[in-house]
Amino acid sequence: MTDYFAGISPLSYEGPDSDNPLAYRHYNPEEMLGDKTLAEHLRFAVAWWHSFAWPGGDPFGGQTFQRPWFGDTMDLARLKADAAFELFAILGQPYFCFHDADIRPDGTDFAENTRNLEEIVDYIGQKMADGGPKLLWGTANLFSHRRYMSGAATNPDPDVFAFSAATVKTCMDATQKLGGENYVLWGGREGYETLLNTDLVREREQAGRFLSMVVDYKHKIGFKGAILVEPKPQEPSKHQYDYDTATVYSLLKEYGLENEVQMNLEQGHAILAGHSFEHELAMAASLGIFGSIDMNRNDYQSGWDTDQFPNNVPEVALAYYEILKAGGFTTGGTNFDAKLRRQSLDPADLVAAHAGAMDVCARGLKAAHAMLEDGKLEEARSARYAGWTEPANAAMLNSDLNSITARVLADGVNPQPVSGRQEVLENLVNRYV
Predict the structure, then answer these.
(1) Which residues touch 252 (CB under 8 Å, ≥6 apart)?
(2) pLDDT by residue (tens digit) across 35-73?
(3) What is the dihedral of CA 71, 72, 73, 75, to 10 degrees?
(4) Comparing C-alpha atoms, which of 354, 399, 433 is closest to residue 8?
(5) pLDDT of 340-378, one tens digit each?
(6) Would you put residue 415 in left (φ > 0), alpha (ψ -120 to 50) or beta?
(7) Does 269 appear as a known binding residue?
(8) Domain residue spans in the chain?
(9) Is 349 labelled as part of a ligand binding site?
(10) If you compute the radius of gyration of the chain from its CA atoms, what whole number of angstroms results?
């Protein structure tokens, strides 16, 4: 036990009229929405790395947070776990997520890393058994250490590739042991800075084989969860091989993994790719590879990945609309890959940030559910493509250019443009949010 969150009671639902910053105003986990509770729909998770491992730095300044568990010893790793589960008890969320490097100190070599990981996994497992939340997903940090400066799976050094593969194995074992429902691969440095020293063919082949080995190992150990890939464009690499959903899907198709791997999509990464979050979600769903989400937001003025807690209900509503259309989460959930601002120093700030984000997500989900239940948006979408339901028009897709040309000449077709009614539909969405 720690006294870090001393004086902060477990949060309760107080309703929209509450002015208590340490209470839920819109997230009532037991509230029914359709045939599920809000907790079952949203499947909230707290990210171990930003909440407990991030020191509060930015590109122009170092650490601002002073946490009593900061340091590279097993005693401090256990203290960090104690604090984490105290926050989990306050928030009452059903899941958490971690990288190996978040929960264990870095050792002098792979063997020590593994011993440290196994020891702290046992410690965390005891806390989970005592009533703590479940593990949504585990992953390996293959980007922070200097050995990964040129990537992990795509590194030109075979020894780094081997170290990375072995590390993933230990993290998959840890995820399996803790009953994790997914395993995530995020290639934070799987890309290049310059083509002058890069073999694109070789690095893409390494990335594909690495992912294939992960899938093979999943089946070998009988892991029942999903393998998730989290795409991210640029930052820190100039170009990354997992740029967005469409780019990752091309790699999956090339290596026959499209039925084995799903996507873990992040709002901030979607924006960096020049997309909206709902675009990435809809794309993944259309390709049959939607899995889970990291919920956060970027600062739209700064142009980089600021990982702020979500506070924009209309944005969140459009995201959950696509998630609900896709059937909702199965093994996935809503992980807050979000961090405090470096001036937000107090324990209460960490609690309030999560509480506010959970309220925003609950409001967005309710709006999305109402839109989907009402059906007006889907009716308008169907009406726009109604012409394709006529047999003669549907048959064109299995026809050829000569036959279609003959049809145009025979019918004297001279089509006129039809309004897409974008502003009308935007106004319709705004009725709900």
Answers:
(1) 211, 229, 258, 260, 261, 289
(2) 999 999 999 999 999 999 999 998 899 999 999 999 999
(3) 40
(4) 354
(5) 999 999 999 999 999 999 999 999 999 999 999 999 999
(6) beta
(7) yes
(8) 32-374, 390-430
(9) no
(10) 24
Q: What is the mean pLDDT of the chain?
A: 97
Tell me which residues are annotated as active site.
Answer: 99, 102
Has residue 235 got a pLDDT over 90? no
Q: What percent of the chain has pLDDT over 90?
A: 95
Bigger pLDDT: 235 vs 51: 51
Q: What b-and-e string marks burial along 114-146, b requiring 16 or more CB atoms within 10 Å of the CB?
A: bebbeebbebbbebbeeebbebbbbbbbbbeee
Element of type H or E holding 173: helix 158-177
Six token digits for residue 105: 């100190």
Helices (H), 92-157: 100-103, 110-129
Question: What pLDDT does residue 134 have?
Answer: 98
CB atoms < 10 A from the CB of 42, how many?
26
Q: What is the number of residues in the chain?
A: 433
Domain 32-374 in CATH 3.40.50.10490? The answer is no
DSSP string, 1-65: --STTTTPPPP-B--TT---TTSBSS--TT-EETTEEHHHHH-EEEEHIIIII--S-BTTB----
Whether residue 238 has pLDDT greater than 90: no
Q: Is the bond preceding 417 in cis, omega lying within 30 degrees of 0? A: no
- Asked whether the beta carbons of 14 and 28 are under 8 A apart, the reply is no
- Tokens (6 digits) for 331: 């093994």
Q: Quote the distance between the C-alpha of residue 149 and its chain's center.
A: 23
Task: Place 108 in a pLDDT band, splitting at 50, 70 and 90.
Answer: very high
Single out the residue of 217, 205, 141 nearest to residue 172, CA to CA. 217
Q: Kindly state the average pLDDT of the residues 80-102.
A: 98
Beta-carbon contacts of residue 247 (< 8 Å; ≥ 6 apart): 231, 241
Residue 337, marked binder: yes
> What is the per-residue pLDDT across 118-160, written as a single tens digit (0 to 9) for each?
999 999 999 999 998 999 999 999 999 999 999 999 999 999 9
DSSP H stretches of helix in 189-312: 200-221, 245-254, 267-272, 277-287
Q: 115 vs 29, 74, 81, 169, CA distance in Å?
A: 38, 11, 17, 13
* Nearest alpha carbon to residue 91 among 188, 5, 196: 5
- The Cα 357–Cα 295 span in angstroms is 9
User: Using the 8-state DSSP alphabet, how is residue 310 labeled?
Assistant: P
Residue 235, annotated ligand binder? Answer: no
